[in-house]
Amino acid sequence: MSSNSNDRCAKCNFGVDRVFRKAPLKACSKCKTAQYCSKECQTEHWPIHRPMCKPHDPQKTWGIQLLCKGEFKLLNTEDESARFKHIHLPNSHPVFTIGELCPVPALCGFPLLIFSPGVHLGQQPTGEWENQPAVYLRIEPKDAFAPMPWQMLDPGTCILARKDHKSLTKETIEAVWKWTAKIIDAAGYPTYDGWAPIRGLVNPATFQMFTRDYFKEQKAKGRKGFDEFWNPL
After folding, report:
1. Can you give the residue ranges of the MYND-type domain (predicted)?
2. Which of 64, 78, 77, 79 is nearest to 2 (CA)?
């Protein structure tokens, strides 16, 4: 559950501030970082929690590895969500030192950092290093275009993390990626027949409404991890 806080069940989001909370929250016995209101919630959430079930380390942050086209193809799947993988990053990782703040998510109250070996280190090995989701995440709010280095260079497999060091999950970053795609669509790229002023759409309210609806849609499709959330992403 991407929007879970310490006073809420990681699966169903019942918490100490909900009138109908089912039971006192109990922490995962292994990592002590996720809490659950029932054994049923913990069992159902285990496939989602398992990749991040490690004891809390204040010197590390949960981020996401965003695979480039070539590495994604090696997975032999058409499921685009497989491009996102959990990664436990030391706080000294370049994403926190030379990574860029993605301006559209940032204006929406979501401080997303992105690090690209292609853009930031100039690494351009042979192979399919294109990374369309990374370019989408890096668009500018003025025109929904990414800066020229992101368009001219192949980003490669990128690293994503929150600037505030809160945990970043696959479900959350997928929703943010889809949000930037919606902004690009509003701008009318590539036909330039946009249907809305971009800057007017880039704000916390519209972002939270979109992501909440996206989570509901994915939950209705039976996708694990896309439970409804109450706190903003």
Report:
1. 9-53
2. 64
141: nearest Cα among 194, 102, 99: 102
- Alpha-carbon gap, residue 33 to 12, rounded angstroms: 16
Residue in the structure block whose two tokens are 């497989």: 82
**Beta strand 35-36 pairing with 60-66:** unpaired
Contact criterion met (CB below 8 Å) for 84 and 64: yes
pTM value? 0.88
Paired with 111 in beta bridges are none
What is the spatial distance between Cα 199 and Cα 225, in angstroms, rounded to a whole number? Answer: 31
CA 167 vs CA 60, 187, 205, 233: distances in Å: 10, 31, 22, 11
Provide the residue ranges of all domains of the chain, joining segments of one domain with +.
1-56, 58-221
**Model pLDDT for residues 83-138, shown as the tens digit of each residue:** 999 999 999 999 999 999 999 999 999 999 999 999 999 998 778 999 999 999 99
